[in-house]
Amino acid sequence: MVQLARMVSAWSLAILCLVVLSGCPAKAPASKESEPSAQADKSVGTARQTAKILDGALHQLRPENLGIDSDLKTAIPVLNTWIKIRKESETLPTVSEKTLAFFGEAQKEILESAIFDNADGTHIRDSILFDEVAGHVTTGASSDTERVNRVFFYCLRNVSLLSESEEELPLGAYDTLFLGRGTALARASVFFEIMRQLRIDAFVLAEKPVDTLGEEWLIGVLVDGKVLVYDPIIGLPIPPGKSPSLLVNQPVATLAELEAHPEWLALHSPRKDQPYRLSSESVAKLKPLIVTDPRWSARRMLFLQESLTGNNSSLVAQPIFGSEGEPGLWDRVSASHSGWKELPPLAWPYPENRLQKMGKMTPTMAQLLQESFRPFEAPVEMGVDPKTRQKVLGSSLFRQFRNRILQLSGDYSQAISAYMTIRQLSAITGVYPPPIERLHLIAAEDALFFSAISKIEDGDIKGGVALLTEYINRYRTRGRWRSVARVALVDGMLKMGDLKGARNALDLSISQDPYRTLVILIKNSLPAANEADAKAPAGESQPAAVKPADSQPVETKPAADKPTEPPATEPKPKEPKSEEPQPEEARS
What we know:
Elements lengths: L1 H21 L12 H27 L10 H16 L9 H7 L4 H5 L5 H20 L6 H15 L1 E2 L11 H7 L1 E2 L1 H14 L4 E5 L10 E7 L2 E6 L4 E2 L17 H6 L19 H4 L3 E3 L9 H9 L21 H6 L15 H10 L3 H11 L6 E5 L6 E6 L2 H10 L3 H12 L10 H24 L3 H15 L6 H15 L2 H8 L9 H10 L3 H7 L47 H5 L1
Parallel strand pairs: 1-2
Antiparallel strand pairs: 3-4, 3-7, 4-5, 5-6, 8-9
Helix pairs in contact: 1-2, 1-3, 2-3, 3-6, 6-9, 7-9, 8-9, 16-17, 17-18, 18-19, 19-20, 20-21
């Protein structure tokens, strides 16, 4: 079915291109008197045709279509047909000498080419997704500071930090968000792309270009002419002289305030005998590193940006330097601080270094990358050979992929419903070959966590807390998401006013927890235990408590997890046993 969909999509768009390129049926030459009117009609017709072509290309490049029902081989030619027609009557923007000098001779072709390539296709796809995320995450925010905080905490919940034993994959921001896993650097790259779609400038603050976690760096965000400061490694905003918290409506310290009060950074240290990683002297030396690459300044992207309106209004171009009274990215950032006006522009090297690592990927890394994405192929069909009547392995249905796109696009209710089918795969044992059964168990675990986060993002805090509690009780010893699930659970409990539950969750013992500093800081900011008990909400039923560390995790299904009929080509689950095997054990 997937291959058929690709063939149909490619065929349809090929026909559309042929129609446009062939033009309208021949007509008799117009008289001189009717020439202006005929020319106007022709312009209107061409505009309509090119608009349809562009809509078709963008439709194929949407995240829910690209890779499943369409591919770059069919979408990019349509985009090039669109720009070819437009160039016949319009002039593309030029790239400034300052921009060419900034990126260097090696990037000149990317900047000046008028032809879209496959990398442009993924650039547009990424922009579409991050634009959708920006829209649903910030809905209801009352200020730009709250919008920034919402996005920052969204990244905290939706991009799980890798543990010390996990190997980093050289992924871009889109794939990092899709997988939901990465380093603090990768998580920051997701934050930057969402902020870009909000038209709010965000950048790295460092003494020098940084590409490792060990360097001294922060995040700066330009709001109302001031630079707000965030800690991307711990995962918390830096408040003005207060203990950090998970509140979206909290104030955030500006860089000017931190320069005047560098002692505020000590509040982000988990212990008094452990100094914060940035010294007081370092704060005064912080410089901005903008997040960009040549495609954001390419002339074809600048031209495309002018045609994006309505539902297709994602930001695909962002010039570094301004023209005709419009300040560029660096113009705005450098003007926000008195000490930056004379600085030469510098770019954050992480995105470029990531591309270089991707080009030098070892076979081992390539295999790890493939295995990371495989759970999104679930479920895998099992069929019957018509000749031998033996069970055979069928094709991947990619439902988890579609479910994940639904979630990231903000269609939470549909995603939660669709994840239910994947969650039921944990009950099907002894039917699939061991590698497929392990894949299904991983997908089922992911679906439970993704469902919980979807409820949180959709405003169903109580439902999200219940599923997060279930996840931690079931997968705490070796679960893929146990650390970030605990952080999201604590955040949800605090929103519900359940201080006792939040403290209990913070007290859980999780090995190799990359959030340990954040956990300590939040724990230290909570009221004393007796005060927390007194503030616990009364008269409202609370979710099941997180089991203490010495309890054996057990698998319990919520009422909504009643089995449904699997697809006709998939095996039905066996009758429930008294004790189901643990997904963690099956994975080992």
